[in-house]
Inverse folding.
């Protein structure tokens, strides 16, 4: 079985986003999962030395393929696209079509024996696909690692800082790390979440969508 370190951030995000019991995505704001998947893919490319980000723009440092088809598709989009655009621009653009990213990540987790597919029928007509966990090693390892980081004062390695930032930005951290023990560490979680630019942009974008939806919703609904 591969260790959690051998899987991509995209795969880790998908694994953590799935509810343990239902095998479906945990509840989160509309479009949040699309943005967090886009952010995870960009973060994987940054860790691979292919891109870099600053507050003003996202830059391609190395256009050479990584050898990972999922990431290389995203990299090609960046290479072929306009230059000088912000991270927020690319998050929005990539979030418009993340189905392939999600499906590929799930396929890989199924192939590793971490997830299994089950079909459930609603009214015997509409198929609903679930992805319950088979081998929980990867999930437990990453949850333990991140949990220990949140409860300590240790400095995170870049990968863990990115992951916590992405989970916080998509509002998933509040559901994954629930309960009074983690509730007392809210400030620590927010501090960790601010350490990564891409994750911060995911959070800012998701929050802006929520605010826009709340403004558009009639009072009393």
């Amino acid at each position: 079985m591969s260790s959690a370190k051998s899987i991509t951030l995209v795969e880790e995000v998908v694994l953590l986003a799935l509810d343990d019991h239902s095998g479906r995505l945990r509840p989160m704001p509309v479009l949040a999962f699309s943005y967090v998947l886009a952010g995870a893919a960009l973060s994987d490319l940054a860790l691979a030395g292919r891109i870099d980000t600053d507050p003003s723009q996202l830059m391609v440092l190395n256009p050479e393929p990584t050898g990972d088809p999922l990431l290389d598709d995203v990299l090609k989009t960046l290479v072929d696209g306009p230059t000088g655009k912000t991270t927020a621009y690319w998050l929005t653009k990539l979030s418009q079509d993340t189905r392939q990213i999600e499906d590929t990540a799930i396929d890989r987790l199924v192939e590793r024996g971490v997830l299994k597919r089950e079909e459930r029928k609603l009214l015997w007509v509409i198929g609903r696909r679930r992805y319950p966990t088979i081998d929980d090693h990867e999930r437990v390892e990453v949850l333990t690692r991140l949990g220990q980081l949140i409860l300590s004062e240790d400095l995170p390695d870049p990968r863990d800082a990115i992951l916590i930032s992405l989970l916080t930005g998509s509002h998933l951290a509040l559901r994954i790390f629930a309960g009074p023990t983690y509730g007392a560490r809210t400030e620590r979680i927010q501090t960790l979440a601010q350490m990564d630019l891409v994750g911060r942009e995911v959070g800012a974008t998701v929050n802006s969508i929520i605010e826009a939806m709340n403004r558009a919703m009639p009072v009393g609904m």
